[in-house]
Design goal:
Blueprint: E1 8-15, E2 25-30, E3 35-42, H1 47-64, H2 72-93, E4 101-110, E5 113-119, E6 123-128, E7 131-134, H3 141-147, H4 153-158, E8 178-183, E9 189-193, H5 195-198, H6 203-210, H7 216-229, E10 236-243
Antiparallel strand pairs: 1-10, 2-3, 3-4, 4-5, 5-8, 6-7, 6-9, 9-10
Length: 244
């Protein structure tokens, strides 16, 4: 494997979709600090928008801060706790926000070392040499049934329970993320997205779209437009990170 340094570029697009009255997704990133976050909020009125924005703000604030002697995963675990507490405290202060929550997927890059973490069913993917690989595993009822062998993937896609997630920010006093460690190679493309994208586009279609040789801004727009074209039933967020 090459020992050349890896530099990152990024772009993101978030869209309300064609059916929802507002956009409860949120994202944030800092190429300089190697931090990239996508959240998908849930809750009545504007609660989902508040939850996702709070989670992004807390994650970005704490992951950008320098902490000597603390690993990126330890830093991320602290940020997750802080984000969950911020959402919980806000919901306690305002009864109209009771029950709000959000999913989260994040990527932290430090030279070649990549840490991906997720809570809920927002996902991370990697495209390497034209091949798409899903990094994260959904925290959802149907995904758990698939892993247990009680449901096959095609049944999961049609299940009326596919919106039921088993882990999210603020649904409990504490939340635990799954972590995945990878090593980036020049040319790798990472995608963080909300389920409004993956519910509309199959892995094969996503792979063909992400193979297109386009600037990241245009590629984000193309992917989101494709999800809208086939339905756009939910908010859609696509954040792309390219290792160069």
């Amino acid at each position: 494997m090459s020992t050349a340094l890896v530099q990152y570029t990024a772009s993101a697009v978030s869209d309300r979709g064609r059916k929802r009255p507002s956009n409860e997704d949120a994202f944030g990133y800092s190429v300089e600090h190697g931090v990239f976050v996508v959240c998908d909020g849930m809750g009545g009125a504007a609660a989902g928008e508040i939850a996702s924005s709070l989670a992004v703000d807390e994650m970005m604030r704490l992951l950008i801060a320098e902490e000597a002697g603390v690993s990126r995963q330890e830093q991320a675990e602290k940020a997750i706790c802080a984000a969950n507490q911020a959402i919980y405290s806000r919901s306690q202060r305002n009864p109209k926000l009771s029950g709000m929550g959000t999913t989260l997927v994040a990527l932290i890059a430090e030279e070649r070392q990549i840490v991906v973490l997720n809570v809920g069913d927002s996902r991370a993917y990697r495209v390497r040499q034209g091949t798409l690989m899903q990094i994260t595993r959904d925290h959802s009822l149907v995904e758990e049934q698939v892993r247990l062998g009680r449901m096959d993937p095609s049944e999961a896609l049609r299940s009326p329970l596919r919106n039921v997630i088993t882990r999210a920010f603020c649904t409990q006093n504490q939340v635990t993320a799954d972590f995945f460690a990878l090593e980036a190679e020049p040319g790798d493309l990472f995608m963080l997205c909300s389920d409004g994208l993956t519910r509309e586009l199959s892995d094969s279609l996503l792979e063909s779209l992400l193979r297109l040789d386009l600037p990241l801004d245009d590629l984000c727009t193309r992917v989101v437009s494709a999800a809208n074209k086939v339905g756009g039933h939910d908010n859609i967020t696509c954040l792309l990170v390219k290792a160069g």
